[in-house]
Structures are given as C-alpha cells and as structure tokens.
Write a structure and sequence with these properties.
It is a single chain. It is built from two helices and three strands. Helix 1 packs antiparallel against helix 2. The chain is elongated and about 55 Å long. It starts with 5 loop residues before the first strand and ends with a helix.
Length: about 90
C-alpha cells in the first residue's frame, strides 16, 4: 500500500512599497492575488504584515497543503503572485 504524501508549504513575499502606494498594494493583494490563491486546492490563508520600524516593508505570508501532483500549480501561483506584486 502506498502512503499518501501531503506537502505543507508557506510562501513569503517581501515588498518595499512607497507610503503613497500602500493602499494600491493592499488593494492588488486583496483583489488580484488572494482570489488566485483561494482557487488552489489546500489553500489555508493569506496574511499581510507591515513593519513598524520600516513602514515601506510589507511581507505577505500564505500557507496551504498540497499533494505531490499539485506542486506545479503552486509554482505557477507563485509566478502570478510575483507579477501582481511587481507589475512590469
């Protein structure tokens, strides 16, 4: 009998956002990145953190679980998150 392997992952994205763009960043994270992540099987949560010492520094943390076959999906979601965080 084969054991089912479940991977637990955490994705950290650190951004430096100008103070006047913080609301735009938060809006994009909530409205563009979060819906993409929520569609992924095993998605647990997305948390945004702002440093008190460096208000331009924002870290978002998302976590979830995935089977071995879902790891390619996780990688493509990470790429989508980067595009939303760092538009060309």
């Amino acid at each position: 009998m084969r054991k089912k392997i479940t991977l637990v992952f955490t994705r950290f994205v650190e951004c430096h956002v100008k103070p006047d763009k913080k609301d735009d960043f938060t809006h994009k994270l909530r409205n563009d990145v979060l819906p993409i992540l929520q569609k992924q099987p095993g998605f647990v949560d997305l948390i945004g953190l702002v440093s008190e010492n460096d208000p331009e520094r924002i870290v978002s943390v998302s976590s979830g679980t995935a089977s071995r076959t879902q790891t390619a999906t996780i990688a493509s979601t990470t790429t989508a998150s980067r595009r939303c965080s760092n538009p060309a």
